[in-house]
Amino acid sequence: LNFSGEKGYKMRLEGFIQPYMETKRYTGTDDSELYNRFRMRRLRMQLSGSLADEKLSYRLRLDLSGTSEADLDEANSNILLDAYIRYSIDDNLSVTFGQKSTPTDNRELNINSQTLQLPERSRITSVFSTIREFGVFLDGTYRITPGGMYVRPAVAITNGDGQNAFKKDYGGLKYGGRLDFLPFGLFSNFGQFREADIVRERTPKLVVGMNYSYNDGVSSRRGRNSGSILYLNDRNEEELPDFIKLGVDFMFKYQGFSMLGEYVKGSAKVSKDITQRVRNDGSVSSGFEIDGQQHVANYIKNRMMLGEGYNIQAGYIFTNLISVDARYTHLRADKYSFMNNGTFYNRPNYYTIGVSKYLSRNYGAKIQASFTYVDAAPGSNDNAGNPIDGNEWVGRLILTIGF
Amino acid sequence: LNFSGEKGYKMRLEGFIQPYMETKRYTGTDDSELYNRFRMRRLRMQLSGSLADEKLSYRLRLDLSGTSEADLDEANSNILLDAYIRYSIDDNLSVTFGQKSTPTDNRELNINSQTLQLPERSRITSVFSTIREFGVFLDGTYRITPGGMYVRPAVAITNGDGQNAFKKDYGGLKYGGRLDFLPFGLFSNFGQFREADIVRERTPKLVVGMNYSYNDGVSSRRGRNSGSILYLNDRNEEELPDFIKLGVDFMFKYQGFSMLGEYVKGSAKVSKDITQRVRNDGSVSSGFEIDGQQHVANYIKNRMMLGEGYNIQAGYIFTNLISVDARYTHLRADKYSFMNNGTFYNRPNYYTIGVSKYLSRNYGAKIQASFTYVDAAPGSNDNAGNPIDGNEWVGRLILTIGF
Amino acid sequence: LNFSGEKGYKMRLEGFIQPYMETKRYTGTDDSELYNRFRMRRLRMQLSGSLADEKLSYRLRLDLSGTSEADLDEANSNILLDAYIRYSIDDNLSVTFGQKSTPTDNRELNINSQTLQLPERSRITSVFSTIREFGVFLDGTYRITPGGMYVRPAVAITNGDGQNAFKKDYGGLKYGGRLDFLPFGLFSNFGQFREADIVRERTPKLVVGMNYSYNDGVSSRRGRNSGSILYLNDRNEEELPDFIKLGVDFMFKYQGFSMLGEYVKGSAKVSKDITQRVRNDGSVSSGFEIDGQQHVANYIKNRMMLGEGYNIQAGYIFTNLISVDARYTHLRADKYSFMNNGTFYNRPNYYTIGVSKYLSRNYGAKIQASFTYVDAAPGSNDNAGNPIDGNEWVGRLILTIGF
Q1: Where are the domains of chain B?
Q2: Which candidate from C9, C49, C80 shows the least CB-CB separation from B43?
Q3: Sign of torsion, CA C349 C355 C359 C360?
Q4: C touches which chains (3+ CB pairs under 8 A)?
Q5: For A209-264, what is each residue's pLDDT tens digit?
Q6: Which CATH architecture has domain C2-402?
Q7: CA quadruple C189, C193, C197, C203: dihedral positive or negative?
């Protein structure tokens, strides 16, 4: 829906609704029950626009469902998603101030939620992504050969505390960037930021990229939240570990076929000055016992998302707008890492197949189903904290309607 | 406000604001003070639309006031009210997936909030309704005689945990339905879902209906909330009571006169396997002492909305758009029922008279006042928990402006 | 953005986004670190409209940033700002019911947030204002001489508990008013409610006003919140102190120059019947020890905003739309007053200079920076509660884009 105001103002209102249903079953146990869950997965509205000269633009995106994007260990149900002001320096370069998704997350997080080829993003996103950050972003797009090779560099300097971290800024800033290389030209119709190849690219399109970020002082597992995990030095001053993330990824699309590959590695630098930790109730402890002995660095690492993982997925949309998709995700935790947590993680392999029916030649209305087989490592629990012996099946169903 | 987009999209934005004032006085006491309360009763915005072929439609309704519809023992101030996607199978039958009001609530809850003939809904609604649920809904409308008799069957399978219960789904599902019979044809201008007869039906219109629901495992007083009251069996597994609701109701309208009658009965089935209860702080107790002795079933029933009630109300809109309305509501609690709670309930009779001035021939702008005399049974308290000897007077004033 | 519906309805949608960055440095200490803070300062949307005859109008204003207007000791992050219905009795007089800013706050709070000449309002606003209240408001505008002198009287009767106080109404009501006198006629283009003189008034414009309010029973420091500070009498009934506020202020504008002056004094009347206080955890104490001795009135006063303050600021917008502004704010606390609190207040002098660049001849897009030198009295702390020896520098940067 587009509006044009007096004096050349332009405004655009969009949105979509995604009701969702999930059913889970544990194998290798006498519990044959199905665990159901209903919810409004996403309910988003977006307002965007530009001033008369189109140099200045803004975007405002809200989620009204009350559920968070990464439904996980660190939730954040604030309704504010994107809110930023962008200034286009020239046709190739723009600077953005405000909150938005960051180029230092894996590629799938730069893809719009209503264009996913499966009902959910992969676990790589759950484990490593910060989803949204507040700060200054530089984005460039440069053609480097007459034949149509492009590079897209991006730099982000943010507070490194995730979405809506508007109280105190714990730790220093986060510095990062991404370099994308597109050897065969830009994707059609913003296809780089949409997952399924519904436009059926006529020539092969590929983007290969890498990203790196250095978060100077994180107060949460991976820099998605603010102030949830704090440490002190001898003088009772805050002293926080640093979190480093490195990723390599690609996406390929051609005539209805699309393929996405991502690799991410998270590591930490723990300052030797840390001698105390702050408990949830605000009290302070100098006990850092882990595996039966006092070890500050390992204790701290055990609360962060350290390790690596990759995700590879592909799908094909038939001309009758039915799509068939598959995904394999593998996670490998460091010895001391929250990725070993039995409730949320500790599951090294995820195998998913999905089928989708698009009702028109865009992402506006579709129905999607998927089945995921989860290979749970020994020591995994269900959500209630009870150990599970076998593995898990998860079935998902999601409807999307956009406006 | 209607929009039409490219390619046949249609969208509609509506809303209304209701500032409200209430004053309460206790009789038969030396406390002659007036207890005032100001608030934004409702502040709603609704976005609805359909795709080009009108088979698929959606609705999104929000309340931004921060106050809940049933201002009572189980509040829920999430802003999300309705959010659903509907598919019209044919002209007579539709299937809906998402969150909306349920056909298994009493008739007044299927009536739009800005069209009420008195400032508030009756206490039947407060006591028994779940207000909104998430699930799958089937709605039919069939003409059964050429003369214009209609039946409107509806079936709902929901998670049975009330509005925005998007975390864990406690207990099983809720199954229910409603059958409405309209002997004299459909009401004019959606009049079945609007209370006062502002369109002045030219021929008598009547709807008579009954509804039934079986909520397999409730974790709250009546299935309006999720996880607020939990029980366990011997093996520390969740074991929840079932809640059954039965209702009969009618609405009649003719030339400015409207009448509404409702009867609801709530009952419970308590599993004999329940042996423990979960306290608010998460700890577990096997004490179920009530009336001086251990009795599991009675203890549990005493925390649920068990009993019956009826509400009868009528009004007339004069041609100068002034309306006069009256209501009598009667509640009869079971011996063990939360309806005996002295703070919120324990008041068997409510007598209300009201007067409204509509500013135009729709519900868009009006001012409404009412006085309610509440017959409080012995053992009732005021909100601060102090016992009251006599009865209560409540005066209400509400303004409505819609857009 | 304006809409016109069927039958003469009018509706207007507006909004603005303000990303913000702040950096703080303490002087006279070995801590040379810069304390940064990023946030979405304001993200507002407003819907307003009127019915066909323009007698009835409404306004609805939301803030979606999750941060509060006065980022201080008593925060309130509810998204609902304004919501009211207004009836224009005649061309000179209107009555409003609902929630809005109150005429009994200092002048700068009656000025729209996106038109401020500096990134933040002065500390006078932080200390004394209630920001928004719910109640009934009468507003008049009368021309008293043919030459164009005007008076604007305003009366407000509100619940006196600040924004979104929709639960219990603690204490009695708040009664207050304001009388503004405009000797040289009304400001151009609503300039009385906009700070910088972007329209460059062709003739000098001046408004001089005074305001007074009596808050009968406050349950917070200055009547901005509800129920945060409670006292009891001998019979365990609520007994609350009264808060009185008196202010005098003016604004002058002429050819790009604007000047604002404000004086506010807050005082209290503490009932002798108060004998107990309610702690945060709900328990009751009769200890009112202050300065080493039991003194009920002084103890209570020490938790209220008692004292006086003035703010004087001026600025000039050049014709190239660059503006230079300066402000001096002085606060003087009573001996017993929360204004002596070392974390939030206890800083008597604030000196600010700012520079702004407006991108067009309205307030729709601008970038603003300011530097404030804060003269901290002995006994001041930083936010973490550590004492600071010297003073503070605060740098601020804010962008605004409206639509």
Answers
A1: 2-402
A2: C80
A3: positive
A4: A, B
A5: 999 999 999 999 998 888 889 999 998 888 999 999 999 999 999 999 999 999 99
A6: Beta Barrel (2.40)
A7: positive
